[in-house]
Design brief:
Number of helices: 4
Shape: globular
Helix content: 40-55%
Strand order of the largest sheet: 1-3-2-4-5
Radius of gyration: 12 Å
Strand content: 25-35%
């Protein structure tokens, strides 16, 4: 299931919990962002498909400005794939096929 992150401390803990072998897909979104809402169901589907290989986190940029700045988020949705606390790729856009293809390359 997709985990909504409420704070930087929760985010940091979840990245630590993922350990060295699990990928983490982070969506930086905003509640007022239409494209973000449209991709939500696809993220839920990916969470089910990649249950043991990937954790999916959603970060509301309006409630977590510190994380948005840390990851230099300027457009929504912005996606980041992290493994072992290292960013592998960061990309922008709500094209579901692009998100799926990118996930498949890394996970």
């Amino acid at each position: 299931k997709v985990i909504v992150v409420e704070s930087k401390s929760t985010f940091d803990k979840l990245l630590g919990d993922a350990g060295p072998n699990m990928h983490v897909l982070v969506e930086f979104y905003a509640t007022w962002c239409g494209p973000c809402a449209m991709i939500g169901p696809k993220l839920e589907q990916l969470a089910g498909e990649y249950n043991n290989k990937m954790m999916i986190l959603k970060v509301d940029v309006d409630n977590n400005e510190e994380l948005a700045v840390q990851y230099n988020v300027t457009s929504m949705p912005t996606f980041v794939i992290i493994k072992n606390q290292v960013t592998l790729i960061q990309f922008v856009g709500s094209n579901a096929s692009n998100v799926v293809n990118t996930v498949e390359k890394y996970v």
